[in-house]
Structure formats: structure tokens, C-alpha cells
Amino acid sequence: MELLAPMRLYTLSKRHFVLVFVVFLMCFGLTVFVGVAGPKIIAEQEHNGDHFVGKNVSGKTGPFNLVSPPLNTYNQQLWLTCVMQAGHNNMRDFKQPFEINVDLKGVMQDASVMHIKNVQQKSRTLHCAAKCDEIIVLHLGYLNYTQYKVAFSLKGLENVSYDIKVTFVWKTYNTTFSQVEIWFRFVFVVLTFMVTCMFAHSLRKFSMRDWGIEQKWMSILLPLLLLYNDPFFPLSFLVNSWFPGTLDAFFQALFLCALLLFWLCVYHGIRVQGERKFLTFYLPKLIIVGLLWLSAVMLGIWQTVNELQDPTYLYKVDIANFQGMKMFFLIVVALYILYLIFLIVRACSELKNMPYSDLRLKFLTALTFVVLVISMVILYLRFGAKALQDNFVAELSTHYQNSAEFLSFYGLLNFYLYTLAFVYSPSKNALYDSQLKDNPAFSMLNDSDDEVIYGSDYEDMPLQNGRANKVTTKYQDDSDSD
Questions:
Q1: Cα–Cα distance list, 371 to 21, 388, 398, 422, 424 (Å)
Q2: pTM for the full model?
Q3: Cα–Cα distance between 148 and 146 in angstroms, integer?
Q4: In the Cβ-directed half-sphere of 306, how many Cα atoms lie within 13 Å?
Q5: Number of C-beta neighbours around residue 374 at 10 A
Q6: What are the DSSP calls for 199-219, one per residue?
Q7: 35 SS3 class
Q8: What is the pLDDT of residues 108-128, one digit of tens each?
């Protein structure tokens, strides 16, 4: 019988498990600390609208002639937002639809001006309560010019009874943050490459067919984590194109969906012995996760294509298609969560008396639970209670005050995979232990492809499993007969 590559997980004591979690949390805490101490992500320039209108022109409607601050590739993207303030303390909650007209021009390095786009009658809605909502006038996903000129006017606010003051805000990525992002992505790429090589090196003396299901999945997830960290990210500063940003979003969606598929396969595969057929084992999981990946990629492409054609495009205006895609995404997410809970409950009920399989289950569940709780806290702190309403499609969020959210997400997922790679890799003496398979004092605990030979003294092994007791009894009977 072929032996399996053992896992370091089986050799760890309770003290070692505590140490693993402490090291994981310390590394994550270090990235959060660096992020909090890091630069702000968004650089802003605020301008009073009254300074950009001519004489005898209404401050409510314009036209306003705006010029962006000087830009370079480290600014990455550009937003122009409009904040309206109603000069009335006892103002009631109201909504007022209106239209905007935008004429966009770009300034080249030689100071020549190129006309980019003229957009007429784009719908927006002014919503004011205690204060008015911020309105995104335009968004440029990449910067082809060193400066932009915008002629902006509003139509439909002439009859508003309140005195409205218009403030414009230019928002770009902070150049210092862009440099920090490059370096930290580079560090994570190097670390992931090293961990991937070390994990592959630890399994080199074992045949691939002898790897456990967790080890096989780690050999897939670690290269995808390398892509998630995006070694091609510096291209976005060298090439003025939408392609590097879209490639980064594609890699992130690919890795996250692979991680979701990993959880389904492992929780199901731990209790399924023997051959795992594609149609019955993998296909249902691929369909669910594939729909999540497809919807995420479609949303990203939809937003990118529309913004390339029209910088003033806002997904909230295209509400019918947006709500349909949103409901489809949420239904698939709910289906995934129910299926995952079902697999976890089945695995816990069937494996609670199988020491090694139970250990694999408990460790993965505990570490994943910690990661999910931290992720939910980060999302809530960043977006608040309206995460799926106002920020369902990625857009500028004023909750991004520093680089803590960026580093916490990247650090969390990277250190999660590094921890799994450590506990699922074979221990140093794994090959030596596997060579003792002919010794009758060493026996396989199970017949599946995920089992390992450990120790010769059954009295010292903390096994309460019935199968292990039977093996011990059989060995003793054979010794008596001899």
C-alpha cells in the first residue's frame, strides 16, 4: 500500500497550536499597525463652486469651469465629486432629481489640450437630510493626461427653495500610498514565492498521488496567492491603460473563489474516502463557486466598460440591471453558505470519534473562523451597515482614511495561507517514519488516502477510536499466537 505524505499538523502539541495562532495574530497585527501608521489613501482638493462661475451666473446651476491638480501615474485614478450644502438649519428630508452636463478635456505634457468627451443630460438625484449626499460627477480609472479641464453645469435645481452652496472635490490616490502599495505587494509576492517553494520542496520525496486533499489544494492556492498579490502591479504605473487594473481585479476574484472552493472540497473530502468522482464531488461545487466568480467578473467588466465609454457613468443610475445582478449574487452567496454549513455539520458529526480527521477538521475550522470574523470587522469598519447597498460595486469610499484596510486584507489572506502551508507540510522526519511501514508496530489508522503512520507504542497514542482499538487488539492477538 502506498504511503501518504504526513502532515506537521499531527505532530503539534496543544502548546504548539496556541503558538501557531499567536504567531498568526502577531503577524496580522503588525500589518495593521504599519497600515495605521501609513499614509492616507486618498488625496483631496476642495474648491468652492462660487469661485468657478462667471458674473450673473447662478451658483446652483453653473456652468462651472474646473481644472484638476497636476497628475502623474502614481495618482492612479481621478474622481470629481460634488457636495451640496443647503443653507437651512431646519431643512426637511427631500430628494430632487436633476441633470448634469459635462465637457471633459485633457492637457498633454506639452500644454496642448485634447477634447475627450462631451456628456449631456446625465441623471442624478440630490438627497438631503441633515446633510446632502456626495455626488460623483466623473471617475477616470486611469490617467492619460497630466491635467484635466471640466466644464460642468446642472439643470433642475433652479426651483429648489433652499439656498444651495456647491463644493467640488478632486480626489486621487495619494502618491505616497502608491509607493507604499508597490513595496508591500512586492514583499508579499516574495514571501509567497518563498513559502510556495518551501512547501513544494517539503513534498518532493512523496508522489503526488500520495498527497492529502489539503496538500493538493495548497499546491493550487499558493500559486494563486502569488497572482492575488499581483506581480504585474507595477505595470499600472508604466502603461496608461485599463488592462493592468482589470488584470488585478481578475486575479483577486480568481483567488478568492478558489479559496471558497477549497473550503467546500476539504470539508466534504475529509469524510469521503476513496476516489472522489468529478460529477458527484467536484461538479456541484464548481457550479456554485463558478457562478460567484462569473458574477464578480461580470460586475467588474460591466463597470469598467461603461466608465471607459462614459466617465460620468454611475451604476446606481442603471438601477434595474444593477438590482438584478445584486439579487443574483446574493442568492448564490446564500446557497454557498447553506451548503458549506451543511458540509461542516456533517463532517463534525461523522468525524468526532476519529482523532486525526477530527484534528484536521477542528484546526481548519478554528483558523478559518478567526479569519472570517476579522474580515467581517474590517468590512464593517470600512463600509458600515450599508456595505451591500452603497458599495456593492467598488467605488470611492470616504471611510478609507489610511492604508490600514488595504494592508489588513492582504496581510490576513497571506498569513492565513502561510499558516495552512506550515501545518499541512510534512514534518522533518516524515520520510524516515514512512520507511518504517514494514514494522508491525506501525500501522495505518485508516484506509483512505489521507492517513499517516505514527508511532509504535499504542499505549502512548491518544486514540479513543474504535478502529484503532481493534488494530491494537489484533496486534496483541498475533503476538500471543506467535
A1: 11, 20, 25, 16, 18
A2: 0.77
A3: 7
A4: 17
A5: 17
A6: HHHHTTTS-GGGS-HHHHHHH
A7: helix
A8: 888 888 888 877 777 777 777
